[in-house]
Amino acid sequence: MPPTPRTSSTTGTEIASALLDWFSRHKRDLPWRRTYAPYHVWISEIMLQQTQMERGVEYFKRWIERFPDVHSLADAGEDEVLKLWEGLGYYSRARNLHKAAQIVRDRHHGLLPAAPEELQALPGIGPYTARAIASIAFEADVCVIDANVERVMSRIFNIEGPVKSRQIQEEIGRHCARLLPKGNARAFNQALMEFGSLLCSSRKPSCPVCPVAASCQARANGVQEERPTTAKTLSPIYLTMATGVLVHDGRILTQKRMADDIWANLWEFPGGIVEEGETPQQAVIREYLEETGLVVNHPMPIASFKHSYTRYRVTLHAFSVTLISDPSDMLLSAAQEHRWARWSEIKALAFPAGHRKLVRHLDGNAEFRTKVLP
């Protein structure tokens, strides 16, 4: 079946008007939309990367309560920033927010720059985020293209080919630029993204109530659920890990990951991957010796926890362990620092997902808590 002819410029105007009208009636009441303060828009854009909207709103409210402006964020310590981010994952986002806030404080008088090229010079702000902030916070006439926009454009114009390829990205960019109503980019870009999220969804798009259904070329050809064309999904990688909770003189040993490591600067209990041919109990004893220089024994099961990141599916086996060697034998090889921490200190630190679940589990274990200083 031949593709439907390209939409005319008149129809393009009609599409933009229909989307803006739909957005005016159906947009979600999001906290950063109440003022469009540049700092709020910036925080929301970073938080919503790899994060569902509902979860993002919850974290945004807590963040703004603690860090209401650039200066409060810039002046905070990194551990506190990471703790407030704990649970959102991709912790480089929080570290970059912290670094960028310090740059904005020191070089821009605490005011976020408006130009996309200046925004992109800040840590953690790439081309997409720079354009989103410029458009939504400063009303710049630039297009913002995320996965939702890619899907909407691929369906309206029945665009074939891998959506992430350079050729298709350029085609989508041309369509967006043609539809963009000058002087109304803030509303239009949000309308496209919101429309893709709520109505033109990846599975079972709501075509019967779609305000642009008559102009949708993919629907006219019956292929709306086949657009956009995506690359094949990679298979998951399964990992088995072990960690040990060591209590000595009422304090728990924890260590801070290297600055250039995955989950950089987060805290964890010593441990690592269970190697082929060993049990999780054997792994935790070996990892303790390799990572800390300490000899531990008698691993007693606490619980097992599952979590995922990127392609990895992790099962973490947690044990309580007994110290055999002298604590002064500590020799870190896989961390930048360590602490013998009271329980209140443990709860104030930021941990990656599996260890965070372990901390919550231990927090509810009355017998364990009697062994640790509060």
Description:
A hairpin with a 2-residue loop joins strand 1 and strand 2. Helices cover 44% and strands 15% of the residues. The N and C termini lie far apart (71 Å). Strands 1, 2, 3, 4, 5, 6 and 7 form a seven-stranded mixed sheet that branches. The chain has 374 residues and is α+β, with helices and mostly antiparallel strands. It has helices spanning 9-26, 38-47, 53-66, 70-75, 78-85, 92-107, 116-120, 127-138, 147-156, 166-179, 185-198, 217-220, 280-292, 343-348, 353-363, 366-369; strands spanning 237-248, 251-257, 267-268, 271-273, 296-309, 312-323, 335-341.
Point out poorly predicted stretches. 1-10
Main pleated-sheet profile: 7 strands, mixed
The whole-number mean of residue pLDDT values reads 95
Give the helices and strands as they follow along the chain.
HHHHHHHHHHHHEEEEHEEEHHH
Given the structure, what is the number of helices? 16
- Considering DSSP H and I runs of 4 or more, what fraction of the residues is helical? 40-55%
Bin the strand percentage: 15-25%
> Kindly, what is the distance between the CA atoms of the first and last residues, rounded to a whole number of angstroms?
71 Å
Shape by Cα distribution = elongated
Question: How many strand segments?
Answer: 7
Radius of gyration: 25 Å
Structure classification: alpha+beta
